[in-house]
Amino acid sequence: MKDYHIKNVFVGGVFANGNTKGASIGWEDYEGYFGQISIVSPENIHLAGDNVQIDSENMSPEFIKAVLCRMVDLAYKEQK
Asked: Are the C-beta atoms of 27 and 45 separated by less than 8 Å?
């Protein structure tokens, strides 16, 4: 996986609108770039057969994976 040099990842918020739930994840890199990833899921996803939707401001799936991996790395680093 490409190294995107992601410095920080944080949960920007969680929300529920009617039958939809989700969360926003913010990120920033060492060059000062930043952005947000929104993850949205229907309330009854297992019944509706729908998929989780990700709005990533046109970032690639590989980049989204890198952000989520960095979030896990930071969380476990802080627990040690």
From this structure: no
Each residue's pLDDT tens digit, 42-69: 776 666 667 888 999 999 999 999 999 9
Instruction: Return the amino acid letter for 42.
Output: P
Structural tokens at position 55? 């709005």
Domain spans in the chain, listed from the N-terminal domain onward: 6-74
Which residues are CB-neighbours of 8 under 8 A, at least 6 positions away?
27, 28, 74
Secondary structure in 3-state letters for the chain? CCCCCEEEEEEEEEEEECCEEEEEEEEEECCCCEEEEEEEEECCHHHHCCCCEEECCCCCHHHHHHHHHHHHHHHHHHHC
Nearest to 23 by CA among 66, 80, 67: 67
Question: Residue 78: its pLDDT value, please?
Answer: 63
